[in-house]
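Predict the 3D structure for this chain.
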Amino acid sequence: MVMINPINISETPKSARDILDRINTLSFNSSLMREMRAIHFVASLIDKGFDDGGRLRKLNIHTVDAESELAHLGASSKLNTDRTFLEWLFTLGRGRADAFMAAHFDKIGHSSSTDVAEKFL
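Done. Predicted structure below.
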């Protein structure tokens, strides 16, 4: 999963624009958070031995994010088509993907590299 919206934003919004940006971020993330809670719930059932006769199976979850870099961007950045900005995003994404592969390549197809409870719950 490639995270384009930060989950954790440490700053409290103070201006009307910042509050609107936070509302947009929370709205966008709400369905992701709901899905991740469901995935975590099913995984916990499987860990306890219930797999509904083999119908349930654990998913391996991997995430690539740039939360610290993206947290300061407002919702309007999603409409920014400036070439320099897009090149910065591309370079950032490439760097984060390379770092992810270096750290977690051996887990792909075998286990999760993301702790769903820690990151999403």
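Residues 64 and 96 are 7 Å apart (CA to CA).
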